[in-house]
Amino acid sequence: MIPFVKAHACGNDFLVVEEQFAKSQHAPLARLLCQRNTGVGADGVEFLDRRPDGSHFLRLFNADGSEAELSGNGTRCVAAWLAHSEGLRDLTLGTHGGPRACRVMECHGEHFEIQTAMGTPQVQPRTVAVPDIGSVAGAVVDVGNPHFVLFTDAKDFSAHRLPWEELGARICTHPDFPRGTNVEFVRVLSPSEIAFRIYERGVGPTQSSGTGTSASAAASIALRGCHSALLASSLGGAQRVVWRPGEPLMLTGPAEIICTGQVSVQALESKA
Q1: Torsion angle, CA of 216/220/226/227, rounded to 10 degrees?
Q2: Beta bridge mates, 123
Q3: Which of the listed residues 3, 42, 133, 224 has the most CB atoms within 10 Å of its CB?
């Protein structure tokens, strides 16, 4: 039996599993656990490695079994669990995208409001040539993992006469991005507020994304003249961003512990 924690941040849900239970089978285990109908169900699994020096390191595996550098929302979910289970309020979580310092700002039962230092974004304008569509202008944004951000005025977030989900899928696996990329579709509502949709690498459309929020806000600030303090809303809710180019970006948003439990891998494999 494998113990797990399920948590979500703005509807972006994750399982937290202690590293020793992975037994070097991170990818197949993530695929089994994340299945919505036959598994526990999640967008990804955060494998939590408690190291001898007292530090914590996270390995994130998406629902399709691919490993990503990090997740902003997933990191926040782990921070919420450690706050809930061990009373930690200020902690740094290592990731393959760099360390992320988290601070619990508010706590109400299983509900947490957490501020995370997301590193210093790198924003560069970029045009991608998509077959049968033409040139798609946007920006590549590095927030420890890769993003392509494009802007749209359409209320349904469509762009280039395609639904955002369809165009997002095509850009996500575009040859210009050999390792794939997350794709955000951003509407600037005012100088201090944006809304966005995300097609997440390794998952598909998701309710929210912490790194997607950070990338969307950074592109809006750097390229569209938005204020350094922004409210960024996705389908799952709003998060707050503060960023001045050249400085670390601060992301503040909720995380909630949904449940804890145990799962039998053998039972899952029999359903696969």
Answers
A1: 40
A2: 141
A3: 42
C-alpha to C-alpha distance for 161 and 13, rounded to whole angstroms = 30
pLDDT per residue as tens, the chain (272 positions): 999 999 999 999 999 999 999 999 999 999 999 999 999 999 999 999 999 999 999 999 999 999 999 999 999 999 999 999 999 999 999 999 999 999 999 999 999 999 999 999 999 999 999 999 999 999 999 999 999 999 999 999 999 999 999 999 999 999 999 999 999 999 999 999 999 999 999 999 999 999 999 999 999 999 999 999 999 999 999 999 999 999 999 999 999 999 999 998 876 676 65
Note whether 6 and 265 are within 8 A (CB).
no
Whole-model pTM: value is 0.95
End-to-end CA distance of the chain: 17
CA atoms within 13 Å, Cβ hemisphere of 122: 5
What length does the chain have?
A: 272
All residues at 6 or more sequence positions from 34 whose CB lies less than 8 Å from its CB, including other chains: 15, 40, 41, 42, 43, 44, 45, 62, 63
Contacts of 189 (CB under 8 A, 6+ apart): 195
Domains and CATH numbers, the chain: 2-116+256-271 (3.10.310.10), 122-247 (3.10.310.10)
Q: Which two tokens stand for residue 224?
A: 């569209």
Q: Which two tokens stand for residue 78?
A: 């782990």
* Torsion angle of the four alpha carbons 75, 77, 79, 81, in this order, in degrees rounded to the nearest 10: -150
